Amino acid sequence: MTDVGEIIKALNDFGRFQRCLLALITLISISHAFHMFSQLFMVAEEPHYCRTTWFNAVGWNLTEEDRLNLTIPRKSDGTLEECFMYTPVEWDLDAIVEYGLNATELCQEGWAYPSKREPSLVTQFDLVCDRKDLSSISQSIFMLGLLIGALVFGPLSDRFGRRPIILLSLLLQGTAGVAVAFVPNFSLYSAVRFLVGAAVSGALICGVALGAEWVGIAYRPHTVISSHVGFAIGQMMLAGLAYAIHDWKLLQIAGSAPVFALFFYLWVLPESPRWMVTKGKVEEAKKLLLKAAAMNKRSIPPEMLDQLKAERTTKSGSILELVKNLHLRKVTFLMSTVWFVNSLTYFGLSLNVGSFGLDIHLTQLIFGAVEIPARISCLFVMQWMGRKRCQAFYLLLGGVVCLFITAVPKDLPVIKTVLAITGKFAIAGSFTTSYVYSTELLPTVIRQTGLGVFQMATRMASIISPLVPLLEKYHTSISVSIFGSTSVVAGLLCLLLPETHGKDLPDHVEDAIGNQRPSKTDDNGLGNGHLTPKDSNVFSEPAKITHL
């Protein structure tokens, strides 16, 4: 019986059809970066002080400067206190001028913003003083949406197909993204952003799955890389968009509405033939495969199509295998740590883009640009150094430069930014390496379950990372120190993992316990043992548990 993998090989593993599909997936990924990091440009520091309307009835004929001198206390440097005001009294103006006000209290009537800049989230929802931390909490809520979206849209894609869930996710992403600009309060803002995060997660996981199920085994990393490169391009575009548009509502609409331009996906986005076959839609899958072959200018032998039959989904190993077996328990713990630290440090650096001293727009542009060579180059570094040393190298490099940042004075922002860019480069490379390395460490019978656990660790770290900077109220270097030290520890732990470079993918648990055989095929580019016939079943069916 012929499987879909053999037919895809016949129609060309990576022909014109697949390249066009990856281009469509890359377009989807561009918009994800906006929703991930746009809030950074909406919560810029704003000068503010307490609103004291109670004094209007007393000193109605005073200048603004005189009124502030009488109602707002001063700091030691002579500037106005931002979060305190003098306690209102029932005195007349002469008594207040003669005796002055001494008792202070927190702002009771909101805040005034003298800069008169275009509206931001800070001025719209008063994200200052005791409400300042709400912006970080909101970012964590968005990250929680990513996790819930994976849990919801992942299983839905297995049931209803990749294509309809991608289209639904894009519709929800565009609608909720535009709706964010019209919410009346910050609670509703956070709730709608949660929906945007869920939609982004749904489009991301289904897009990567769709691409991976259309290309040949040796080109699986291309799907991940194309998605990551699209995400990096989105970060660069965000820098320009935020530089041009300062009103947070207009920025939100400008970054969300373009997803509606992808309505043509209704006609051009294909379904996964692997999913169709597992659901018994063999005839529809044959028509789609013939269409792809025609676009690739290839022909599929009729007898090969005739042998295509509906497949029964292979039963995966139990998640308990990851706990019961000593070797798999070690691999699961170490790689979960790697994925957790990757996410914690990646989002930690990305969400602190404005804290390194240079212009936030320029830093964001460089942060996005540096990811493109980082993502691509790591594939060649893996070939040269092997998986284990490559993973450890990137983590150690990222951790060390983060620790160096803590030693650089604030008056040297260029050096701090260069170190941060180097750290972002290293962690981005580590992230891409972990996708390949994790796949090769786990046996086929438990691979999807294990990757699901690793993805869960990633999402948990992404929820925590926006909250880590809140510790900077105790010391300004705490957050970067956490990112650096955890990366160094994870890099050292990687040295305890086995090397998988040039070895066959393990199919069973016993194959993974130090008994992996050297690949009988040449180490061809990105394959590394992925091209052997016995391994062709690794990706022959849609992934059901990697949606986390």
Helix content: 55-70%
Q: Regarding quaternary structure, how should these chains be classified?
A: single chain
Order of strands in the sheet with most strands: 1-4
**Domains (count):** 3
Find the count of extended strands (DSSP E, 2+ residues): 4
The helix tally amounts to: 22
- Briefly note the structural class of the backbone: mainly alpha
- Computed over alpha carbons, the radius of gyration is 27 Å
Uncertain parts: 519-548
N→C terminal distance: 32 Å
How would you describe the overall organization of this protein?
There is one protein chain. The chain has 22 helices and 4 strands. By secondary structure, it is an all-alpha fold. The protein folds into 3 domains: 1-44 and 118-312, MFS general substrate transporter like domains (Growth Hormone, Chain: A, Up-down Bundle); 49-112, no CATH class; 316-521 and 541-548, MFS general substrate transporter like domains (Growth Hormone, Chain: A), CATH 1.20.1250. The strands form 2 sheets. A two-stranded antiparallel sheet has the order 1-4. The protein starts with a helix and ends in a 36-residue tail after the last helix.
